[in-house]
């Protein structure tokens, strides 16, 4: 497993130095070498680039509504509630950056605090193509209801191809106890770095997994392995562009249902930065 690559740890207030304890507010500090910032937000106000969907999804048990999405000094709050609406027993939010155009090779860092109650399965950042119905990049998704069966808290990173095919995706998991802060309810920064024939996922600078075209076989120590055989068909398409999406999912087939006493939870996005490769 990779060592921590960065000297800063994500907190609700900004990047905290491991060495000095000082905090750099999100939106400040250096851009990673070799990258150029194309989008940056702390979601204190609406920048007009995102769309709050009003609909149901087939894979969870909530009704997404714009009322559940709130800008605040601490970031974007996407609220899940026990509330009958749209024929579902819960309400939530699905926020899509339809006007945030992301090139095929990019880096994204999202700093988020996740709800981890049973029945929640938040996806604080994932990407879908703007110019194709096929392909999905999951930067983080958690299933707290399943943690007792999986040996403790973890999260998944995944690549999806055509949803109609079987198998439709590959994924990998990282335990939160591999991080500098092992509490899954704490604020963490989840990262994806997509370059030619390679895609890497990290949390707080620790590698979750890397699919790499130059790697012939799985290396468990480094958490790296070869690309799936279908990767180029969906992820190396010329002129492919993507958009970001934020979705706290509740209940349904994959997430189980919240406890009867549950009333409300929230996914908080403190910061999102997206970069393109420098020329």
Describe the structure in your own words.
With 279 residues, the chain is mainly beta. The chain is 3% helix and 48% strand. The strands form 3 sheets. Strands 4, 6, 7, 8, 9, 10, 13, 18, 19, 20, 21 and 23 form a 12-stranded mixed sheet that branches. Strand 2 and strand 3 form a beta hairpin. The chain starts with 7 loop residues before the first strand and ends with a strand. The N terminus is likely disordered.
Rg result = 18 Å
Count of alpha/pi helices: 2
- Can you write the helix and strand succession as a string? EEEEEEEEEEEEEEEEEEEEEHEHE
Largest sheet: 12 strands, mixed
Report the sheet-strand fraction: over 45%
Chain-averaged pLDDT: 91
Low-pLDDT residue spans: 1-7
Count all strands and give the number. Answer: 23
Helix residue percentage: under 10%
Apparent shape: globular
What attributes does this structure have?
279 residues; mainly beta; twelve-stranded mixed beta sheet; eight-stranded antiparallel beta sheet; 23 strands; globular; disordered N terminus
Summarize the structure.
The chain has 279 residues and is mainly beta.
Helix/strand layout:
Blueprint lengths: L7 E4 L2 E4 L5 E2 L10 E7 L9 E2 L2 E2 L5 E3 L4 E4 L2 E11 L2 E5 L2 E2 L5 E2 L2 E8 L6 E10 L6 E6 L12 E7 L8 E7 L11 E9 L2 E6 L2 E7 L11 E2 L5 H5 L5 E10 L1 H4 L8 E14 L2
Parallel strand pairs: 7-10, 20-21
Antiparallel strand pairs: 1-2, 2-3, 4-23, 5-11, 6-7, 8-9, 9-10, 9-23, 11-22, 12-22, 13-18, 13-23, 14-15, 14-22, 15-16, 16-17, 18-19, 19-20
């Amino acid at each position: 497993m990779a060592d921590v690559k960065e000297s800063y740890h994500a907190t609700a207030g900004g990047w905290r130095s491991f060495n000095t304890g000082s905090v750099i507010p999100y939106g400040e500090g250096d851009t990673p070498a070799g990258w150029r910032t194309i989008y940056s937000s702390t979601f204190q106000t609406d920048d007009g680039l995102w769309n709050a969907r009003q609909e149901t999804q087939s894979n969870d048990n909530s009704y997404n509504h714009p009322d559940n999405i709130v800008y605040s000094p601490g970031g974007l709050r996407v609220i899940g509630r026990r509330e009958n609406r749209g024929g579902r027993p819960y309400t939530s939010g699905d926020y899509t950056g339809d006007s945030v155009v992301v090139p095929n090779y990019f880096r994204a860092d999202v700093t988020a605090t996740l709800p981890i109650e049973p029945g929640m399965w938040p996806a604080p950042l994932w990407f879908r193509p703007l110019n194709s119905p096929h392909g999905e990049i999951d930067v983080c998704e958690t299933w707290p209801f399943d943690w007792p069966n999986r040996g403790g808290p973890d999260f998944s990173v995944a690549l999806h191809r055509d949803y109609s095919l079987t198998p439709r995706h590959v994924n990998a998991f990282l335990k939160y106890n591999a991080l500098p802060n092992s509490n899954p309810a704490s604020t963490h920064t989840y990262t994806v770095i997509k370059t030619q024939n390679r895609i890497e996922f990290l949390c707080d600078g620790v590698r979750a997994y890397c699919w790499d075209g130059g790697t012939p076989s799985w290396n468990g120590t480094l958490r790296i392995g070869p690309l799936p055989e279908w990767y180029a068909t969906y992820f190396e398409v010329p002129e492919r562009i993507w958009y970001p999406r934020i979705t706290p999912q509740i209940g349904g087939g994959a997430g189980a249902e919240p406890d009867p006493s549950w009333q409300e939870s929230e996914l908080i996005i403190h910061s999102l930065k997206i970069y393109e490769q420098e020329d």
